[in-house]
Amino acid sequence: MLKKYALPLTLLCVFSSVGLAIASYRGQTKYFFMFAGMGAAAAFGEWLTVQFPKFKQLFRRTIQALVGGFLFIGLSLYGNVNFQFSELFFDLYAGVVTGALIQFVFARLILPFFMGNAFCSRACWSGAFFELVQPLNPKVKKPRMRNEVIAFSYIGLLIIISSIASYIYNPAVFEGSKRYWIIGENLVILSIGVFVSRYWGSRSYCRTFCPFITVSGLISRFSIFKITPIDSGSCNSCGLCNRNCPMLVDVRTAVKADKRIDHKSCILCERCVDACPKDCINLSPGLPWK
Predict the structure, then answer these.
(1) SS3 of 243, please?
(2) Can you say how many angstroms the Cα of residue 23 is from the centroid of all Cα atoms in its chain?
(3) How far apart are CA 35 and CA 38, in angstroms?
(4) 147, CA 20 to 30 Å: which among 9, 21, 132, 250?
(5) Among 178, 166, 187, which Cα is nearest to 82's?
(6) Cα separation of 31 and 190, whole Å?
(7) Which residues contact 232 (CB under 8 A, 6 or more apart)?
(8) What digits encode the pLDDT tens for the residues 36-49?
(9) Is the C-alpha dihedral spanning 143, 146, 147, 151 positive or negative?
(10) Which whole number is the average pLDDT over 66-89?
(11) How many CB atoms lie within 10 A of CB 100?
């Protein structure tokens, strides 16, 4: 019974613990309630999927929209906090610590040890938007696989652009202009994502460019929770798991080999789990090195 609810309990504990640590460090209780609230929302969504597994994707996307919407509308637009990768370098050059670093450390350096890249499928507002508009795009016959050279080159490009922008007019210093940068940067990311998805397949920006997945993907293979074969002998190699994976992870090969999915691009969206007609896989905890 406890294993059945391991994921929602883990989410609640991890979010609350991080919130408590940040609140103690910064001397502001709002951080605890902020993180505990997001953890409670995510945990409630996972609890609902246990009770009503047929509606798993509906619950996941609803929680992603709510948590992602709070982060973007409530904290970014209203609170004037930029969570994008460039802000890490704006803050570095300005010598300040903002929500960008807090989010990066939590979502990309701590959470991956527990839930891999699950932030991308349960809290990222860009990912929620890409999933929403994807049905409007034509079916791509040959989606583009992830390319590490492109991924790390994109990070290098972002660092160069951020460094130049910081030298000319650092948004972290001039608070009045930060909101315009937040809006502009997010519009650019969403526009690139929608454009490349038409030619490279679903969530192409996430799979090919996203600097956060590039970083957290280095840790996600050591995650406690992974997509796990529970009855690999029943797999009939139908390939539905692979065809439904937005990140183009080769789930079928791992299942046939009775191995957990430790691919750095896996976002634990569980589309492969829902697609499997034989119930061969699920999202479950296990030893991180297996």
Answers:
(1) helix
(2) 24
(3) 5
(4) 132
(5) 178
(6) 28
(7) 255, 256, 257, 258, 280
(8) 999 999 999 999 99
(9) positive
(10) 90
(11) 22
- 15, 38 Cβ separation under 8 angstroms: yes
CA distance 108 to 168: 29
The rounded distance, in Å, linking the Cα atoms of 265 and 253 is 15
Residues 245, 272: contact at Cβ < 8 Å? yes
Helix or strand run (H / E) with residue 175: helix 175-200
- Shortest CA distance to 206 belongs to which of 242, 247, 241, 244? 247
pLDDT at residue 1, rounded to an integer:
58
Radius of gyration for the alpha carbons in the chain, expressed in angstroms and rounded: 19
Tell me if 111 sits within 8 A of 211, measured CB to CB. no
Q: What is the pLDDT of residues 224-277, one digit of tens each?
A: 999 999 998 899 999 999 999 999 999 999 999 999 999 999 999 999 999 999
E strand or H helix at 18: helix 6-26
Q: Taking the model in full, what pTM does it have?
A: 0.90
Task: Give the pLDDT confidence of 102-114 residue by residue, as tens digits.
Answer: 889 989 999 999 9
